[in-house]
Write a structure and sequence with these properties.
heterodimer, A: Aspartate Aminotransferase, domain 1, Aspartate Aminotransferase, domain 2, 2 domains, 7-stranded mixed β-sheet, 4-stranded antiparallel β-sheet, globular, B: Aspartate Aminotransferase, domain 2, Aspartate Aminotransferase, domain 1, 15 helices, 36% helix
Chain lengths: 457, 484
């Protein structure tokens, strides 16, 4: 029997110990009217050879297209050692480290992760992960409402330059708690929140969300925005890309006082694209807010001999202790992805991550300059950017994407559903993996497709 | 030693370098960071050795028996990982055109269909990323259902006192008040108390069946009828689905919504605290409210349904489509088991648990509910040992670690004093179960003869018992050089 070790002899002897005559007798407390062993919609089992053949077929069907999509998930190089170690059984098949003495490996690694992510963000403390960037932002919003004791309102300012799906996820998760999400529009020239457009008297608002870089890849005026929010009694929630932070001012240093809560998508740190997950969300905050933070937190302490050790701490915030009064219902999070991220950051180091960030930026600049030669393509927004850019087309963007896909290019993310005012636009990304040869190939194919489309008109 | 203590300024990892020029003037100075982020500067070998050694300080299923009640720590077949890590699956961008992902989407559609059949529900969404998010989804759908009927008076969710802590925490996140209901001494829900608790304020009830006490609630059909008659809906916490896979379906018990923990029943790895996956299944009346994206078949193509296709959906829970790689591993596992294998899961998980319960009882341990059948797990209470020998459940748990067994779940459920919740799973052999039983007896003998050795356990692990009070009072959450 696959994955079940029992021999017939053992089954007999075990049933005798229990004093029943068959395994079926063990289910005699379930009302007969409910018993249902019909699993007709489930096919018969496959052995490892057959499942390998099946999955190889699915994989070949999908292939590996040339990827220029970012929009929240980025195709970075992952050093070979990262997943070799991450998938060691001792990490892969361990449980949440409740038994600290038997989990020092995972616990120390998580403590090292908390240290690395606070150094990257210049924040005081971090948790050990949330599910992903979008749901992490929802938790940050709930945390800000709890933490901003001066604010009586449940209003949160969320700019339209925040990833549109993040905004939807935040809405799904917080809407039943009476929280009001107020959108803030962006500057059509710059693709950013113009600090000059902010009201002088915004009223009682619990927090302002600031994305850096924003969804368009554009850099926001984080200092001015942070100061404005703090001057008006709001907390600042930074939503950041961890790769970019190797290059950009960390949120802990934004404005006069720095951001209060910082979250983001951890995927760029060693998680493969993998159709959208598993990734992980990270969250950091100022020391004073640590008891309002959701999720697992690891602390360093000593054992009875005074030897250093690591353990889950501040558990009084969590659902398994506080139940209905917990900071969140989160329990299982994304431990294995944090394992990969910690190894990734160690192998790259500060210099390696900064070089990766610079290479992404340079390749995107190269893509912008290469695309400038294509008729019918215009780059939008005149502000500095990190590793994504918005291009406007004369042809419908979604159809262009379909045609690119048929030529095995994943060409970008169409913005028209979320930003109809921008017209036929694509958000395009070139990471450190997309060199000039790849960019040239994309340019050739795109120029051809657009020329054909122009002829058809 | 911490990784930071291996770090030397100026050491770089050239194999992982990108050739870059100076910082381009396309980013103005004011946006740039002034100091590097101070990540460790170590060689690849130093990192590999450091984390390999750390891994060796963990217990895991691959190295240890892990009878952790309510967690279903069964073998995670290696094929599931190897096949899910094929480069074509890893390299697929979640926003790429559906034409570039038909192989992957076929797997996801078929997984939805298999989970539907295994649970007896009408439709499944794979979107939730863990059990707790599945719970949130379930209760948010119940709320959306009442709201759509303009039934605003329903402000309460009923939760048994034995429930997992995520249940009440979830109800609060969805804007509900929680009312706890008592469990009878035989482990079933008290129908009298349930009757008193139900009313026009009842939005629904959250149940686990088999319950966290390790027994199947025999009155589930009455419970279901009573809640429905009061206008409430029933939510099924799938934490214990392993016990009944292929034997009885939550849909047949009358549940309106269930979540499944694929990292339990469908054997995806726990990863030292995730990732999980918590798909939800619903009865007919909740279909319109399922979270998006859903995977649909249109002709011979598979596609993702969005808010436009499902206007009453509670919405999105993640940036893309949830923990896709976990779902893929669960798909591979489900295909390897097939329908015969799924039936065996419930059977052998139950056989192993009942065998352990019978043998431990024979050895003189106190079973919390001795008159009941165990399901896939059962509870031993150490209240006598605590009273007579001064050695409590935690001491037993810690001493088990010295004998190379991971501890059972301790002090949960909260309503049984000094409890150990034991779940062997179907993938463990009789020899291992026998060794565990003998070790429990041995520890009790130690507790009689030399209690200190048990009370001070563990002795053989990388650290002894840790000072949790110090950890919480003198918070040390990030490494600062020079501070010990």
């Amino acid at each position: 029997m696959p994955f079940i070790p029992h021999t017939d002899e053992e089954i007999k002897s075990m049933l005798a110990s229990i004093n029943v005559s068959s395994i079926d007798d063990l289910f005699d407390e379930i009302p007969a009217s409910l018993r249902n062993e019909n699993l007709d919609q489930i096919p018969s089992g496959l052995n490892e050879m057959d499942i390998t053949r099946l999955m190889s077929g699915f994989a070949r069907q999908d292939g590996v297209p040339l990827c220029f999509i970012g929009a929240g998930a980025y195709d970075h190089h992952i050093p070979a050692a990262v997943w070799e170690i991450t998938t060691r059984g001792e990490f892969y098949s361990a449980y949440t480290p409740y038994q600290a003495e038997a989990s020092q490996g995972t616990l120390q690694l998580l403590y090292e992760f908390q240290t690395m992510i606070t150094r990257l963000t210049a924040m005081d403390v971090a948790n050990a992960s949330l599910y992903d960037g979008a749901s992490g932002l929802a938790e940050a919003v709930l945390m800000a409402i709890r933490a901003n004791r001066k604010s009586k309102s449940k209003r949160i300012l969320i700019p339209r330059t925040v990833h549109p799906v993040y905004r939807k996820v935040v809405h799904t998760i917080v809407k039943n708690q009476g929280i009001v999400l107020e959108e803030l529009d962006f500057d059509l020239e710059g693709g950013h929140i113009n600090p000059e457009s902010l009201p002088n008297e915004p009223g009682d608002i619990a927090a302002l969300i600031i994305p850096q870089p924003n969804f368009f890849g554009v850099l926001e005026e984080v200092d001015a925005l942070t100061n404005w929010a703090h001057d008006n009694g709001m907390l600042v929630i930074g939503v950041v890309n961890p790769t970019a932070l190797a290059l950009l001012t960390p949120p802990g240093e934004w404005g006069e006082q720095g951001a209060d809560i910082v979250c983001g998508e951890g995927q760029p740190l060693g998680a493969p694209l993998a159709s959208g997950g598993p990734y992980f969300g990270f969250m950091c905050c100022k020391q004073a807010l640590v008891r309002q933070m959701p999720g697992r937190i690891i602390g360093r302490t000593v054992d009875t001999d005074g030897k250093q050790g690591f353990t889950l701490t501040l558990q009084a915030r969590e659902q398994h202790i506080r139940r209905s009064k917990a900071t969140s219902n989160i329990c299982t999070n994304q431990g294995l992805l944090v394992t990969a991220a910690t190894i990734y950051m160690s192998i790259l180091g500060s210099k390696g991550l900064e070089e990766t960030a610079r290479m992404c930026h340079q390749n995107t600049q190269a893509l912008i300059s290469t695309f400038s030669s294509i008729n019918g393509v215009k780059k939008l927004f005149n502000r500095p950017l990190f590793h994504e850019a918005v291009f406007q087309f004369e042809a419908p963007a979604k159809e262009t994407l379909k045609e690119l896909a048929s030529k095995n290019i994943a060409g970008g993310f169409a913005l028209e559903d979320d930003y109809p005012e921008l017209g036929n636009t694509l958000l395009v990304c070139a990471t450190e993996l997309r060199n000039q040869t790849d960019i040239d190939e994309y340019q050739h194919v795109l120029a051809y497709i657009l020329a054909e489309a122009a002829k058809r008109k | 030693m911490l990784i930071f203590e291996h770090s030397k300024p100026g050491r770089t990892n050239k194999a992982q370098s990108n050739k870059t020029g100076p910082i381009p003037d396309s980013i103005p100075e004011k946006f740039l960071r002034k100091r590097p982020a101070a990540l460790p500067d170590v060689s690849e070998l130093q990192a590999v050795r450091h984390y390999t050694r750390l891994s060796q300080k963990n217990f895991s299923i691959d190295t240890h028996f892990y009878p952790l009640g309510s967690c279903t720590m069964k073998y995670n077949p290696r094929a599931c990982n190897t096949l899910a890590m094929r480069p074509e699956f890893l390299k697929r961008h979640p926003s790429s055109d559906e034409s570039l992902g038909q192989g992957f989407l076929t797997c996801m559609f078929e997984l939805q269909e298999m989970l539907k059949d295994a649970t007896g529900m009408s439709r499944v969404s794979l979107a939730p990323m863990a059990g707790a998010q599945g719970e949130f989804t379930g209760i948010a759908m119940i709320r959306a259902y009442h709201d759509a009927r303009n039934d605003q008076a329903r402000t309460e969710i009923l939760v048994p006192d034995a429930a997992h802590g995520t249940n009440p925490a979830t109800a609060v996140m969805c804007g509900y008040k929680v009312r706890e209901i008592a469990t009878k001494s035989d482990g079933d829900i008290d129908l009298e108390i349930l009757k008193e608790s139900l009313g026009p304020q009842t939005a629904g009830i959250m149940l686990t069946n088999p319950s966290t006490l390790g027994v199947f609630d025999r009155n589930i059909e009455q419970v279901s009828k009573m809640v429905h008659d009061a206008g409430g809906l029933l939510y099924y916490d799938g934490a214990n689905l392993n016990a009944i896979l292929g034997k009885v379906k939550p849909g047949d018990m009358g549940f309106d919504v269930i979540h499944m923990n694929l990292h339990k029943t469908f054997s995806t790895p726990h990863g030292g605290g995730g990732p999980g996956a918590g798909p939800v299944g619903v009865s007919e009346r909740l279909i319109p409210f399922l979270p998006v994206p859903l995977i649909a078949q249109k002709g011979d193509q598979y596609q993702l349904l969005t808010e436009e296709d499902c206007p009453q959906s509670i919405g999105r829970l993640s940036t893309f489509m949830g923990n896709a790689g976990v779902l893929l591993r669960a798909y591979i596992y489900a295909r390897m088991l097939g329908r015969e294998g799924m039936k065996r899961v419930g059977e052998f998980a139950t056989l192993n648990a009942n065998y352990m319960m019978a043998r431990l009882k024979e050895k003189g341990f106190t079973i919390a509910l001795p008159e009941r059948r165990a399901t896939h797990e059962f509870i031993v209470t150490m209240k006598n040992e605590t009273k007579d020998l001064g050695v409590n459940a935690m001491d037993f748990a810690k001493r088990l670690l010295d004998y190379d067994f991971h501890a059972p779940t301790t002090y949960f459920p909260l309503i049984v004093p000094e409890c150990l919740l034991i779940e062997p799973t179907e993938t463990e052999s009789k020899e291992i179960l026998d060794q565990f039983i003998e070790t429990m007896s041995l520890i009790r003998t130690e507790a009689q003869e030399n209690p200190e050795i048990v009370k001070n356990a563990p002795h053989t692990l990388p650290v002894k018992r840790l000072d949790d009070v110090k950890a919480a009072r003198e918070l040390d959450l990030v490494f600062t050089p020079g501070v010990q």
